[in-house]
Write a structure and sequence with these properties.
Chain lengths: 275, 257
């Protein structure tokens, strides 16, 4: 029996784009469900926002950021987070449980690119919901939510793309853990906890107590949310941005390479379940 | 009742088979509580009090919230599996059993990682209790408050689940709306605007079962309110949830394969 011909680069790119498009279509099919889950995020984040407003009432200068800067930061962080949320682990967990993952492992696109294409599709679908949220944020915080400059806006786009690489890299590691544990449910929530604390979603790192800030700076999560939000709002001098982008790239590539290495090791002993 | 007991015990045994999942689940539950406490830490390094509540008084709210979550997860967690039951067609099978379908769904998937939330909640509440020193006899009321809280939380989850029964989404994310609303009870109601206070006291009454008892324990609220309000809130939510479930099932259309 002869081996199947390897797909060309053109075919791989085409496959990636089509899969991302199909993911967008699938996500948009469940419009109401997505809107409701977005409502859950708004409700959850609203608590952080209201608590911070109460802190500024108790102590008008609780840290280096003014009330308006803090408000703009929290909205920007929420928007970046809403944009970068993907269903990579949930989708994988469902397919693992049902035994459908066997087919995914045989796709010519490769397992990594198969997952990444769907992650890109998720982000593109998120854009549909994030743009109206940005308009709502503008209504709430005014021009403070706009980018500090054209250069800051351009650098933020790059930073968000690199933030996606980190978010996907972490998800891909969770997928590997799910292969081993036969369920990614627990690990997924563990990631959510770490993300909530260390990403800067609930507060920029300058507002953290020193110990917590030290821990956050050693982890990749703050480069997912805090770095793009700070660049957008001009809380980072433009000359510091390339250094932050380099850190983002290093974390993103490092996490994905680590995920691929674990994937190779895991595949030697994995058994398909379900069906 | 015997049937439900046997069914629940069997479901527990099935879950206990997956020991690694159990260990990861417990660690995760504790991590999620620690994540919430990390924000608490940030808050109280930036302000001496929040909405008139001291750090230890706010810790009471954290403890109660974790315990309510734990009891609901341990006894009535099956609602989180409703979207999957609908997608896979399993709900059709559950509906033909000669039992109360709502109880059957609720008890079908206990979560042992609730033990992590239970531990975290008990420790947090213990620390707050020892710092605030409320009357010792009030300890007897804690199971009463936590039980009522678990009924309210589960009831709100059922309400959301029933409302969404016809909107068959790919995941259970819509139930997180109710879960996130529970998180409002970790902070004093005084930090929220009036409409949100009304919402969590009277409509989705997490405040009635968590904030009201905690307010009494810190020496502000009345004993009568702390004893009577939680069961009234629990009863109202349970009746509304049952009604919503029955109405949703009447319009339910199978989607499974």
């Amino acid at each position: 029996m002869s081996a199947l011909p390897r797909p060309t680069l053109r075919q791989l790119v085409h496959g990636f784009v089509v899969l991302a498009q199909k993911t967008v279509q699938t996500r948009l099919t469940y419009r109401l469900a997505t809107l409701v889950s977005l409502l859950a995020s708004v409700a959850s984040y609203g608590v952080f926002l209201l608590v911070w407003l109460a802190i500024y009432r108790e102590n008008p200068r609780p840290g280096p950021l003014s009330r308006d800067e803090m408000l703009a930061y929290l909205i920007a962080a929420f928007l970046v987070n809403s944009l970068l949320i993907t269903s990579v682990e949930l989708r994988f967990g469902h397919r693992l449980r049902m035994g459908l993952i066997a087919g995914d492992l045989l796709r010519p696109l490769g397992f990594l690119m198969f997952q990444m294409a769907q992650g890109v599709g998720d982000v593109l679908a998120n854009l549909v919901y994030v743009l109206p949220l940005f308009a709502a944020g503008y209504g709430f915080a005014g021009s403070a939510i706009l980018p500090a400059s054209a250069a800051a806006a351009a650098l933020t786009l790059l930073s968000v793309a690199l933030g996606f690489l980190i978010a996907f890299g972490v998800s891909y590691l969770i997928v590997q853990a799910a292969f081993v544990l036969q369920s990614g449910y627990g690990i997924m929530f563990l990631r959510a906890s770490l993300h909530q604390v260390f990403s800067g979603l609930s507060a920029p790192l300058v507002m953290f107590p020193p110990t917590l800030r030290g821990a956050a700076e050693c982890l990749p999560f703050h480069h997912e949310i805090e770095t793009p939000a700070r660049i957008w709002l001009g809380l980072v001098p433009l000359e510091d941005a390339p250094r932050l982008l380099a850190w983002q790239a290093a974390w993103g590539v490092g996490l994905i390479v680590a995920g691929e290495l674990i994937f190779s090791a895991v595949m030697r002993r994995h058994q398909i379940q379900g069906g | 009742m015997r049937f439900y007991f046997v069914f629940y015990r069997t479901a527990l045994k099935a879950i206990a088979e997956y020991r690694v999942d159990f260990a990861v689940g417990v660690i995760t539950a504790v991590a999620m509580q620690l994540a919430a406490l990390a924000f608490y830490w940030i808050v109280f390094t930036r302000a001496p009090a929040l909405g008139g509540w001291s750090p230890h008084e706010v810790l009471l709210l954290f403890g109660f919230t974790a315990l309510v979550l734990a009891v609901s997860e341990l006894l009535f967690n099956g609602i989180w599996w409703l979207p999957y039951y609908v997608q896979d067609g399993q709900l059709d099978r559950l509906l033909v059993y000669p039992v109360n379908s709502l109880f059957f769904v609720l008890m079908s998937r206990p979560e042992l990682h609730a033990l992590g939330n239970l531990t975290a909640g008990a420790v947090t509440l213990g620390i707050a209790w020892s710092a605030l020193s409320p009357p010792t006899w009030a300890l007897l009321l804690v199971p009463w408050w936590v039980g009522c809280g678990a009924v309210v939380y589960t009831g709100v989850l059922v309400l959301v689940g029933a409302l969404m029964l016809r909107v068959v989404g790919p995941w259970a994310t819509h139930l997180f709306t109710a879960h996130q609303m529970l998180n409002t009870s970790r902070y004093p109601l005084s930090v929220y605007p009036g409409w949100l206070r009304t919402l969590v006291l009277y409509v989705l009454p997490f405040g009635a079962v968590i904030f009201v008892p905690a307010d009494f324990l810190r020496g502000h609220g009345s004993l009568l309110g702390a004893v009577l309000w939680p069961p009234l809130a629990a009863l109202g939510t349970a009746l509304a949830a049952k009604r919503a479930w029955d109405v949703a099932l009447r319009g339910y259309q199978s989607t499974g394969s």
